[in-house]
Each structure stands twice: as structure tokens, then as C-alpha cells.
Amino acid sequence: xxxxxxxxxxxxxxxxxxxxxxxxxxxxxxxxxxxxxxxxxxxxxxxxxxxxxxxxxxxxxxxxxxxxxxxxxxxxxxxxxxxxxxxxxxxxxxxxxxxxxxxxxxxxxxxxxxxxxxxxxxxxxxxxxxxxxxxxxxxxxxxxxxxxxxxxxxxxxxxxxxxxxxxxxxxxxxxxxxxxxxxxxxxxxxxxxxxxxxxxxxxxxxxxxxxxxxxxxxxxxxxxxxxxxxxxxxxxxxxxxxxxxxxxxxxxxxxxxxxxxxx
Length: 263
Description:
Elements: E1 7-11, H1 18-28, E2 32-37, H2 40-52, E3 56-61, H3 67-81, E4 86-89, H4 104-128, E5 132-137, H5 153-168, H6 172-176, E6 178-185, H7 191-198, H8 202-207, H9 217-229, E7 237-240, E8 247-248
Parallel strand pairs: 1-2, 1-4, 2-3, 4-5, 5-6, 6-7
Antiparallel strand pairs: 7-8
């Protein structure tokens, strides 16, 4: 068990997607997991599933977009299991659907500020344990300039922020033995995404920029464990386009491949 005696918080882990899959995987690796979600029933169900499989879990309803809820979450982890070693910033505001002006501020509040609140409060808790590991969850839609974005600018702005936050916090590894990294997946086979994927023909997927395969929840969880446990990794961004190998952005990547000669 890679994570025996570790304590983890996974935000947004009360649904049927990535957060629950990561929480369950961390528990299988021996971690005590604090499940957090705005859905009380969902958070309780994830904790129940972990406990039924022989793992340790506790749950707390909370909105990471609220700083006071995040303070309670960190205190709850320390009260329940004695500290905090791992944080997965997975929580995301429900996708607003089509419309360039939809859901801007809600996405930034939860996806970006929620990640910042949780990271800010996790650092002192991890210092008390002698170090720790933080994983942000980004999105390929927030990469590059001109690549097909999502239909929600607010979502992409928030995800670009959490990706950049991970690289900027690289010095924490040397200063406090706290490593911050970011996992940037493409299309993940959550139930909702898989239902949409299965409704399309191969030609329709190609026309809409949908990859030919989805990244499984199991594979995503494997990547999360890798980033949380590999002590050589700090301030790194792992990008995983569906159907392609996982890759890391290079140190010093400028974020742009070239320049146009005129306006």
C-alpha cells in the first residue's frame, strides 16, 4: 500500500465521476480519505463505499468556493484522522452548457478560488506533518491558444489558473517538503460523458473534435496516485490527451509555440 497511514482530502468526491474514483483508489492504497462535496448524500455514499471495501473514510458536506467551508474541512480532517498529507483539488462547478457568457463567476469561484482556498489552508496543516502532496485537476480545454476550447470561457479560465498555480508553487517542495502538481486530462469516461460519447458515430466524433477513445476512471486514478507519490515531481503538469501517452510539459515551457508576423 503506497499510502498507508496517510490522510487525504478529495474535494468534489461525492459524484459518480473522477472525484469518487480517486477517493476510492487512495483508500485502496491505504489512505484515510476525507470525502467532500456539496451533495451530502453523494459524499456519504462515497464514504460508505470506501468503508464497505475495508477502507477508512469520513465525509463532510461543504462548498470549496466558500472560505469558511474550507476552514471547517481542514479542521475536520485533522480532528477525524490526526492531520493532512494529501489534497486533491477536484471540485468543479456544474458545467453551464452552451453559451459564452454562462457560468463565468460560478466556475471561477469553485474551480479556481476553491482550489486556492483549499491549498492555502492545507499548507499549514501539511507543515505540521513534515510535508505533503497536492494535486490540482485541470483540463486540456484550457491549454494552448486557438486549440478548440470548451463552450465555457469561465471554466477554461479557472482551469488555466489551477494549472499555472501548480507550477508557481514548485518552490514549496524545497521550502516545506510539499509538492504541488497538476493532472490535465482530456475526455474522461464519467457516466455523463460516456453516454454522450456513445450517442455519436465515429464520423460525428471526428467532426466535433471528440477523441476516438475516452480515458477510463481507473487510468485517471492511476495517474493521480503517480503524481501524489512520486517524490521527484513538483510544479509539474501532466497532460493526457485521450488515446495518447501521458506527457509532462517541459520546465520553462513558454506557453506559446510561435508568433504571427502581423496582426
